[in-house]
Amino acid sequence: MIPYMEKKIDKIGKEISEKKDRAYPPMAWLTRKLYSKLMTPYMEVEQEYDKGFYTDERCMECGICAKICPTQNITIQKKHPVWNHKCHGCMACVAYCPTKAIQFKTPEAYEKLNTAISKRLCLPEKRKRYHNPFIKATDLMIDKQHIESKR
Questions:
Q1: Domain residue limits, the chain
Q2: Bigger pLDDT: 18 or 22?
Q3: Residue 123 above 60 pLDDT?
Q4: What distance in Å separates the CA atoms of residue 105 and residue 91, rounded to the nearest whole number?
């Protein structure tokens, strides 16, 4: 699978560097049929997601979390991160925190959903911290700066 994906990544990378426009592929029929039923409950509580983040005493006030957040959801106030309710749950802040000070507990709004999907998700407090070993926090910061410069 990895060699196949590497070829695909090379092709996608080439298209990006050539700035090719491409239409999004259409949704599969099953996705189209189930999307509103499955996703509407999550979309209604999406702004509640980042209420699950907090820092503990290990926070060293480095600000890496704010620098790598792709949605610019994190600001630093009184030397600590504050989440501003635009989170998409990428967990970059958790994965790249050098002291593992950022913690996550599933927000109450998500626990109340009590759907088959939310039960199977094994939401983040049950997951190990992981990030791709080939991607550094500085890579994410550079990507974010590049995206911001295009706006």
A1: 47-151
A2: 18
A3: no
A4: 12
Summarised one tens digit per residue, pLDDT across range 44-94 is 888 888 898 999 999 999 999 999 998 899 999 998 999 999 998 888 999
Q: Please state which of the ranges 6-10, 106-110, 114-118, 127-131 shows the lowest mean pLDDT.
A: 114-118
Q: What dotted CATH number matches 47-151?
A: 3.30.70.20
> In 3D, which of 10, 19, 9 has the Cα closest to residue 150?
19
Long-range CB pairs of 143-147, under 8 A, 24+ apart, other chains included: 143/70, 144/67, 144/68, 144/69, 144/70, 147/70
pLDDT, mean of residues 128-134? 82
* DSSP-assigned letters across all residues of 25-51: PPPPHHHHHHHHHHHHHHHHHGGGGGG
**Burial zone of 87 (CB within 10 Å; 0-12 exposed, 13-18 middle, 19+ buried):** buried
The secondary element (H helix, E strand) that includes residue 80 is: strand 80-83
Point out which residues pair with 53 in neighbouring strands.
104
